[in-house]
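Supplementary Note 3. Input sequence used for the single-chain structure prediction.
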Amino acid sequence: MKAWLCESLDGVAGMHWRELPTPEPAPGEVRVAIRAASLNFPDLLIVEGKYQARPPLPFVPGAEFAGVVEALGEGVTTLAVGQPVAVIGTHGGFATHACVDAGRAIALPPGFALEDAAAFAFTYGTSQHALLDRGALRPGETVLVLGAAGGVGTAALQIAKAVGAHVIAAASGAEKCALCRELGADAVIDYSVENLRDALKALTGGRGPDLVYDPVGGELAEPALRSIAWRGRYLVVGFASGAIPALPWNLALLKGASIVGVFWGEFVRREPQASAAAIGQLARWYAEGRIKPVVGARFALEDLPQAYERMASRRALGKLIVVCGN
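The predicted structure, written as discrete structure tokens, is reproduced below.
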């Protein structure tokens, strides 16, 4: 097998394209022939030693991938050889093969494209958990989605529209804003040229959004919180800007607002039944055509450093996919 091996925590510079022995599955594991993997923001952090999970060196990065079960370890009865699956975890996906615990492999229903499956669980799982579970989004409410043209942003936009919300998409640049319009945003703010607070005041008649979905952090957080509606909910999803904001918490008091943390990975670990039910609902929406991953660019597996560069530059639209020619 071939794999990208992270041998030091120096970012992309610490990753090397290696030929490795093809692993055999241990009891309770399956070996997956990987067809596609997606690049998520934690994949950038983990090779820099900045993510919550720190696998021992060396390791293969890549937390989300899809492929076909190629071999079964002893005791595995829930999957079969030839079964298409999606896998989520912390690492292992940027390779031609991976052995994983059978419980981490999600059997895909007929008609679920492998590239879509490789770009699905993290972004849609995070966004659904944020909007519906943590944010209690109701039909007719107004949602502000920051970073709306990125992986989790496009997923949040689609899910909010699927449940009947009014969506204001905020992104940087004309190309990203055009994508948000194509995905059905009711209004779009280009915060590279527009003042976020002024635009929100004009779009909501001064009332503000009921829900703020924020995977960006940084300098956008305070104007978004200042703009929130009475009894609004501010969803802290991540810090793609690289800066964790220090906010004046009297703003939450003045607006009767809730600051709500969103940690999807821990939700999956602590509440597996609720997580499985949520993924099932998302799969049904996918089959109905209500949601579909936005793939902004595809890269060959051996060109993975180019995908990392695209993500780090914040030029990515939707999800970045690496494709393996197994």
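The radius of gyration is 20 Å. Residues 2-120+294-323 form a domain with the Quinone Oxidoreductase; Chain A, domain 1 fold (CATH 3.90.180.10).
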